């Protein structure tokens, strides 16, 4: 069944995203049109004080990276490399829905 949300993930990536080099563990590197962000988040340190941390995330259409797995890497245009730590569904019912990857810095 066609959903009113079909196609929105592609539009979002086209407008807000850029080609991001993706390196799966078991295959060649390729550029994937997607959205990489480093979002500031307030957390609490061990003493109970608020601190600001940066949480890198990668939003990508699942059908563009069907082999996506933990440990795969991306290298966005900021000169750093990140490994996929966790993969979460976006919650969209669309056929082209994106997934949201939590990332960890592997090189600076």
From TrEMBL:
Question: Which domain of life does the UniProt lineage start with?
Answer: Bacteria
Q: What is this protein called?
A: Head-to-tail stopper
